[in-house]
Write a structure and sequence with these properties.
Distance between the termini: 30 Å
Radius of gyration: 14 Å
CATH superfamily: predicted glycosyltransferase like domains
Largest sheet: 6 strands, antiparallel, barrel
Shape: globular
CATH architecture: Beta Barrel
Strand content: 35-45%
Low-confidence stretches: 1-6
Number of strands: 7
Number of domains: 1
Order of helices and strands: EEEEEEEH
Mean pLDDT: 81
Structural class: mainly beta
Strand order of the largest sheet: 2-3-4-7-6-5
CATH topology: Thrombin, subunit H
Number of helices: 1
CATH class: Mainly Beta
């Protein structure tokens, strides 16, 4: 049986040290919800693998602020959708599919252009 990584659109790479994520569900009243601070496990041109402190439903639209260690200034403001959420080994993990047409999606995508260091 093929491993699920073989079906990814874009290769995943480990998250660089120091990447920090803040996430909030994107919907009416989201500004009232407390943001979650997440551990980024891996990333690709079109998505992020994260660890969550609690479950989040697949198909939840989210806003993300990504602080990259090599980037000074404001974090990247991204949008995406939770693709899956599970708790293997007792820790919640999720995959977030990014919407590169919104926010800083173009800046994020450019980080993965051929010849760009990870």
């Amino acid at each position: 049986m093929p491993h699920r990584d073989e079906h990814r659109q874009h290769p995943r790479q480990p998250a660089p040290r120091g990447v920090a994520l803040t996430l909030r569900p994107e919907h009416d009243g989201a500004a009232d919800q407390e943001a979650l601070h997440l551990l980024c496990r891996d990333l690709s041109r079109t998505g992020l693998g994260v660890s969550f402190p609690q479950p989040i439903s697949p198909d939840t639209d989210v806003e993300l602020w990504v602080y990259l260690p090599e980037q000074s200034g404001a974090p990247l403001h991204l949008f995406g959708t939770v693709a899956w959420c599970a708790a293997p080994l007792g820790q919640w993990r999720a995959g977030i599919a990014l919407d590169l047409e919104r926010g800083d999606g173009g800046v994020w995508e450019a980080r993965f252009a051929p010849g760009t260091p990870p």
